[in-house]
Structure formats: structure tokens, C-alpha cells
Amino acid sequence: MRDGIILETQGITKRFRGLVAVDRFDIAIRERTIHSLIGPNGAGKTTVFNVITGIYQPEEGKVLFQGRVLNGLKPHEILALGIARTFQNPRLFRNMTCLENAMAGGHAHGRAGFWSSVLGLPHQRREERAIREGAEEWLRRLNLWHFRHELARNIPYGCQKLLELARALAAQPKVLLLDEPTCGLNESEKETMMAFIGDLPKQGFTVLLVEHNMNVVMGLSDLITVMNYGKKIAEGTPAEIYNDPVVIEAYLGRGEERAVAGG
Amino acid sequence: MLLQVDNVSVAYGAVEALKRVSLAVSGAEIVAVLGANGAGKTTLLKAISGLVPVKSGAIRYNGRELHKLPAHLIARLGVVHIPEGRRVFATLTVEENLNLGGYGCPKEEVQRAKDRVFQLFPVLRERRRQLAGTLSGGEQQMLAIGRGLMRSPKLMLLDEPSLGLAPLLVDQVFATIEQINKEGVPILIVEQNARKALSIANQAHILEVGRIVLSGPARELAADARVREAYLGGAAYERRLRAKESREA
Amino acid sequence: MLTFVQQLLNGLTIGSFYAFVALGYSLVYAILKLINFAHGDLFGLGAYLGYTVFVYAAGVIGSRFGLWGLLPAGFVAAALGTAGAGLLIERVAYRPIYPIGRLPAVVSALGMAIFLSNFIMAVWGPRYLAYQEAFIPTGFWQIGGFRIRVLQVLILVSSLVLLFVLYYVVEKTTFGAAVRAVALDRETAALMGIDFLKVIRFAFSVGPALGAIAGVFVGMYYRQINFTMGWVYGLKAFTATILGGIGNIPGAMVGGILLGILEALAAGYISAAWKDVFVFAALMLMLVFRPTGLLGEKVAEKV
Amino acid sequence: MRWLKRWDWLSGRPLLFGAILGFLLSFPFWGSRYWVDVGFYVGLYALLGLGLNVILGEVGLFNLGHAAFWAIGAYTTAILNVRFGVPTLALLPISALVAAGCAWLVSSPIIHLRGDYLCIVTIALGEIVRLVLINNPGGFTGGPNGIVGIARPSLLGHPIRTSTDFYFLVWAVVALCALALRQVQRSRIGRAWNYIREDEIAAEAMGVDVRALKLLAFVLGAALAGIAGNIFAAKMRMVSPDSFTFMESCLIFCIVLLGGMGSIPGTILGAALVVLFPEVFRPVAQYRLLFFGLALAATMYFRPGGLWPRRRALAAFAKEGER
After folding, report:
1. How does pLDDT run across C45-85, given as a tens digit for each residue?
2. Which residues constitute the domain of residue B51?
3. Which segments of C58-195 does DSSP mark as H helices, in order?
4. Across the interface, do B195 and A257 touch by the CB < 8 Å criterion?
5. Hey, what CATH topology would domain C2-289 get?
6. Does the structure's ipTM exceed the value 0.95?
7. A108 and C CB contact within 8 Å
8. Distance from first CA to last CA of chain C, Å, rounded?
9. Nearest CA of chain A to the CA of B195: how many Å?
10. Tens of pLDDT along B52-67?
């Protein structure tokens, strides 16, 4: 690990039927920071997520996590190493309770096998309790406690996004990949979510954030990487990115939005 | 009155998604409905176009009672609903998508409409033989709008045309919408991007948890302090940006 | 070489039966994502309806217009009757249930399959019925070392024509595009002014009608029918559907023909008793290497 | 007795469960032999249903070939007993292991297939097994006539012979399996199965080894079917391919869905319905399957979630009580 870089990709390339979705893409994320990945739709941001988390295998390049190569590992192995994620549209276990959803985070850290579960051996019971307490802790901290016995599909959309975050955090990850965490939230929910995410580095988490809402990106990020057509086109602090002519051309535009912000 | 939504309620099971909502679209104007996710905006459009059943109340369009018609007949009346998230038919070609937009219309009319769409969006002409799923997000939105124009719409319902698009593309899409409206098509648009929507709309309504809480001319609403704070988020944004900059400096 | 050509011809014939039935599975699956387990038994019903018409109409039509007047009457009646049954099943057992969920619909379809085969048994009895010579074209041509039966030519030509017509309708016309659009996204299709029920009726009438034609052909080809034939052929045809890629019209045709040829070759060169084991093993192997069938679905799941 | 306290499907509705348990235990002492046999079949199908419930109900894998594993269990017992004289009851675990082993061999290359594709493969598998049994490879399976002359099992010197003996044997096994499966349902393994059923990609992203857990479910379900096969062979004293048709696989499939996916009491109820239905309609024997087909469709219309769906929220509350 150099310069406190915890997660990096080196020249990853991913093609779909000839279409290059990610093209020799590098990103390096420093520990305990919020690093945002922005860019137009179809720029390849979600594909980068899927490559890092092992859902896709890159055709070229490497993914390094704490100096370890992740290529070839399965998603569940990558999670166990300490990278958890959320999805753009919450992918909850809809017909299970919120508590059960959050307990999914603890699954990878459990060891009890089939027979010890059948027999209810002491170490299995201890482990179950630990998993449940871990989940309950995050439900409390995200103000979802009163929903713990509700089925996930029955809680409001904003709470579903929070629950997905609770589930990811319950996995005790070192790095969190958040795919548009504020998309579809109303203004007050957005505030809650932003405050919570902004607090994560202090608790020891590193965050890689994909987000369209500039409000959120500019407010939270320590560093921003901009991508377009699968390539990195710029990288810098929010202030640098905000005034970068290349980024304005490709992504931000010169709409009214900027007039308000600039004024 | 072209479209009259009168005390409409819609329920999904036990949950009421719309509660006695009333609004109207008269001439060739743009009416915007704003609100957060889950406020019932999409449900409102789906109720008008017949995708969800109306529990009580009435929807009238040129004297016809829309709430009693199935969706495909409403579409054939010229009420064109462009759904959220683009929803192009991914494994059909661009041209097949457009042809379906004019499904049931005479052949010459479809051809004429197609030429007009290609004029408006030249990129679609280039890609007419391509599968729609291979288009970029922005191109898909153009295809979705173009597909809606195929039936020479008499009323256009637009659901979150800016959703998931980069800011630059959002500007283009809104410019297109304004242009379509200038050609005489009344538009009912539902948006989360309140600032953008208010900038092009004549009338606006604000929907909160299934109820209309505020209505009026778009310009008045844009100036309303409550609206600015709750939906435009301008003040909060500026505050944070300034704080961030001062911290960095 | 001679046996090879003979087996190939047999395979093509059997394959066209499978293709006919597979289309019904595929059409319904494409639109409702439902495996219509009752489809095999609709095919069986077609064979029985054809039989009945032949028996009763032989005196009226057969005596006046001969075999070639009788045949169209039997086919049309069987196709219409079976299409009616298909529509009825859709209306009664599927339409109220498929909005609820996929699994309940699967159980309902299994229920309808059980119902239909037992219905056939209750009406026509459990014993084999013989398709009589009076309504089967029995002629053949002797070319070189082997013979071509008129019936085989009839089967191959009519399947070629019908399959091409269906292919053209689904892939090349605007109505076909509407069918495919409904398969992709029912709501948006409704917004285009496409009548969902019309598309459903198309699938549940054309599929069973084609199945009925195959049923009558099977009766003529093997000269006997039984109430269990529905599921035997249904299973093979369903295998063919998967082989070609479910929900894919050309795929169902290719899968059916391929399965027929595979089966005939396995019967000819390996062993008749083991041919089905061979066919199903081939299916499993194919799925291991090409999980979405030969022609596959075009879309992958988006993450 | 801690485990007694944790028995919360009793604590939910103690009266109902007490009544059912009392009925099941006392039934052979006052029911006729015929109905005791029917009771045996309810237990047998409950066992088959519980096995498939793991695969279909918990993990959501479409398996329409479950009868294949049942057949493998039954034939393992028949062949090893008749040819090699292994005691029938000793073959119970062996049948389970053989069925599980076959399931592992067959399912590992295909377990990644999506819903309907997996469904057709399991149908094909069921057919392959049946056809192989008919074709009598190496003279081992006895062809279409099957194998006769399986010895009665005996437990600690006490021969299991009467209908009542078999009734208690099968229901004892059902009870043990139901308890064991309930334990698994409430563990990280059971939850992980449900995660896979709800959203496979999210499950994998949350650290669930999807492949391994799917295989575990398949193997476990097949093992239960193997046990059912052993008991079936012992009861019938003969096996033949006719017993293991596609129709049987369909019935087991319907048992799980009639009862409610992932619901253990539901599965047992489903088995009771599927076995009892033809018995009740015996007066109209010719039409009973016809009515059965209609009843299946009707049940799905009125109770799409099954007759006795699993109640998640309550289960979680009950867990809290035990703290």
C-alpha cells in the first residue's frame, strides 16, 4: 500500500459485445476519504463498480485492494475481504424483514456450518447472536429500528435506501461503494443521507461514491474523478473539477444550474 | 378545457397513492407537476393514461371519460405518455420502436411522422437499424420522445425526462420539450428537477404524499420561498458550497 | 448413406412436429414468461378432435370430395377447436392468476395439464385410438433405393409454409413488432396503443392451432393416438424450445428440427430404447455450455 | 429444556398444533387400516415435500424432477437389499447418501442455470432416470417390472411390518426432519438460502457463496427424497419405474406451492391435501384427477401465497422472546 491508497484499479478494460464500457481506467482511493466518480450516463461508472466487486471480470488490468490483486475472485470473496456496496435501485431481499436484511451483512463473517446449525451448537448460537447484534446496531444508528420486523418491501423508498446502506455497513467493510445513494430521495431524506455519508470517514470507512446530484458530490467529496466513454477525463478537488473546462463541456453543461451556483 | 383531472384518487391495495387530486391543462401550455419521489407524480400520469385504475373521481379529455377506457384506447386518442426511465424496446431496432409509436395509424402518416422525428433527432436516422438497447442514455431519451411524436400527439404526458441524464443532456431534452410545445402540443410534465421544470412551465402544481398542496403560475411558484427551500434547494446548496470553499481556502 | 438419408428424413418429419408444438410454448413464454404446461395436452386434444372429425365427416365430405377434401376439413376443425380451447384456458385459468405471480401461474398451468389429459381420457377413453387408412394419404414415391411417403412430403411442405408465415408475421410486420414489444414491456406497449389482450389472444390461438395441426399429423404418421401423447410430445417440444432459446420464434423452429434429427440419428445409430436418454443428455450438455439456448436471448440481466 | 422453549411454531398456536399432534399420534389406534395407509402416504409425501421445499421453497430453484432422487433412493435400497442382503433399515442413511451424491454430481454443472432452464434440466433428469431404470442396464434395475422381494426392515429386533408400524416410522422421520429444517431456517444458512431466492446478485454481493449454498440445498433435498425412497421401498417391498413418473414430480412441486413456499407446516398440509384429494373423490374415480387439476388452479387463484405461508415477521418476534 502506497500513500495510504487502499483500493485502486490499474488500466481496467471491460467490453460488452465489442462495445468498450470501461477503457484502461485508473482510479486510486485513499483511505478514509470520500472519493466520487462522476460522469454522463453510460460513461461506465456502474461497470467500474461491477468490476471492483467481482460481478464482471475485466479483460485487461488489475484491481488492487490493500496491495492484493482482486482479479478472479468471486463477489462473495471480495466482500469478505472488506469491500461492500449498495445498488442504484435498492436490491433488498423484499420478502424478508428489515432485520433479516441487515443480518445479511454478517453472513460472510459467520463460520457455522450445516450440522452445527441443525444441532444448535453453542458456538453457532453465539455467532447468530453476534450477527444479529451487529445488524441491530446499524438499524438503530440509521433510525430504522422501528421497522426491524417489517418486510423490506413495505417500508418507504427512502428507508429502503438507508436499509441497503445498513446492510452494507453490517458487513464491516473497509471500503464502501455507494451507487447513487441519494437518487430518488426527497430533500430532507437527502440531507439525512448526506450527513450520514459525510460522517463515515471519521468512523474509519473509505467511500467510493457514484452520484449525479452535484449538490451531493460537491458537498461531500475529498476527490472527484470524472469519466466519459469509459475513460478518465479529469480528476481533482471539487473546486478544480467545478471549473474544469473539459468537465463543463462533457458533463456539467452551461445551464441555469451553474448560474445559480456561480452567483 | 382539454384535460380535466377531477378529484381523482388512486390506491394500490390499502395504500392511497393519490388523494382527490384535481388539475387541468387548457391550451397549448406546459403544466408541471413537482414533488419528491413517492409523492404520486408517476401514479398521476399512469392514471391519466389508463395504466392504473382510478378509484374515485373523473378524468375528462375533450369530453371523453378517460378513466373508463383501457390504456391502448387512450393512447389512440392522441394522449401520449412518455414513461419514466425511457423504457425503449431494447431488442427492437430504432425504426421498429418508432413504427410502434404510430401503431394503428395509416402507413403514409407513419412515414411522414418518422421523417419529422428524424429531422428533430438526426442521430436516430443514423442509428435506425441499430437495436434500441445499444443506444446511450441520452439517445434513448430522444428515441422515447421521438416515439411519442409518431402519433401526432394532442396531449403529451412526460414522466421525469431528466432522470439519470447528465446535466448537459438535461438542457438538450428540455429545449426539445419547449420546441414541441411551441408547435402547439400541450404538455403535462412531471419532474423532480423543479428548477428546470419551472423554467419552462406556464402552470405548476406541487404534489406531496398524494395531495396537491400548492398550485399557481410557474413564475410565482419559482419565487415562493417555501418552494425554493423545499424543492429548489438553492439556499442549502449555496451555503454548503461556500462552507466547503472557505474550508479549503 | 442410405440409412443416413432415411433417418435424416424421419428426423426432419419428427422435428417439424416438435417445431410446431415448440412454437406454442415459445409464443406464450415470450409474452407472459409462463411455461404453459397445458400446451402439450392441447396438442393431444387437436389429435383427438381431428380424429373425431375424420370419423364423422368421412361419410359426408369424404364420400363426395375424397381424401383431399376430407383432409382440410379435419385440419381446420382441429385447429379451430383447439384454438378455442386454448383461448378458454387462458381466460379461465391464466388471466385471473398471472398478475399475481409466476409460480402460482406455473401451478395453475400444471393443473390445467392434468385437467386436459384427464378430460381427453374421460371423453375418448383410455385406450389407443387408430387413425384409419381411409383418412391418411398412403401413397409414396420410389426414388432409387428409398421411398418417400406422400404424407412425409405433405408434413414437411406444410410445416415449412406455416412456420415461414409465422416467422414473417412475428419478425417482419408491425403487428409482429407489437407482439415482441408486449413481450419486452407490457405497460409501455399499452402506451403505444397496442392491445395486450389482442396479443394474448394471438398467442393462445395460433400456438394451439399449430399444435393441433401437428397432433393430426402425428396421428396420421403413427396411425394411433393416446391421451398421454400430449405430455410425451409436450416434453420433447419443450426441450426443443429450450434448445433453441425460449421466447425466440426462429429458435423454437431450429430447436424442434434439430431435436428431431438428433433423435432419429440416435435411434438409428445408437439404440431406439436409449434415444430419449441421449436426447435429454444432449440437452443438459448444451445448457452447460450455452445456458440460454442455441439462438439465446438477446438481453443479459442488467446489474 | 431450552429447545422446547424455542419451539415457537408451537408457541404461536399451541392449541392448533397440540390438536394436530394428538390426532397424528392417536390416529392409528382408532382409524381403519386403509386410512392408516393413507396416513402413511401423507407422511411419505410430506417427506418428499420437505425435501423439495428446501430446493424450491427456500432457494427458489425450479425442480420438476424431484421424483428422480426418490427413485434413486428406492432403487438403492432395493438393489442393495435384494442382491447383497444389506438390512433395509441400515440402507436408510445409505439411500440418502447415494441420492445426495447423485444430486451433487448432476447439479454441480447446471446449478448456475436460471429459473426455467434449470426447470427443464430437472425434468430431463427425471426422465433420464426413469428411462434408465426401464432400460435395465446390466440387468441391475429389473426393467419395467422393477425389483421385488425387498425385506422388511427391523428396528432393534422389532420388525416393522404393519401399516401402523410404517405410519409411525414415516411420521417419526418427518418430525425429525421438520425439526432439523426449522433449525436451519433460523440460521445464517437458512437466511442465505432466502437471500438467494429474493435476489441472487444482491446475495452474492453481500458475501453469500451462492453456488455452494444452492448445491447444499439440492443435495439436502435429494437426501430427504432418498430417505423417502428407502421407506417407500420397504413399505411396498417392491420398486418399479412406474412409481417415479413426471406426474409424481409435479405433485411434489404442487405440494410445496399449495402449502406455501418455505413453510414447513404448509408443506405437510400440502402433502395431506394432495394425498387426501383423490381419496375423498374416490366415488368419482374416473374424474378425480380432472377435478384435482381444477382445484390446483382454483387454489392458486384464491391463495396465491399458499394455504399456510411462512410468517416472517412473527418468527422474528418469537426469536426476540428467547433472549
Report:
1. 999 999 999 888 877 776 777 777 788 888 999 999 999 99
2. 3-248
3. 63-65, 67-89, 102-124, 150-172, 174-184, 186-191
4. yes
5. ABC transporter involved in vitamin B12 uptake, BtuC (1.10.3470)
6. no
7. no
8. 51
9. 8
10. 999 999 999 988 899 9
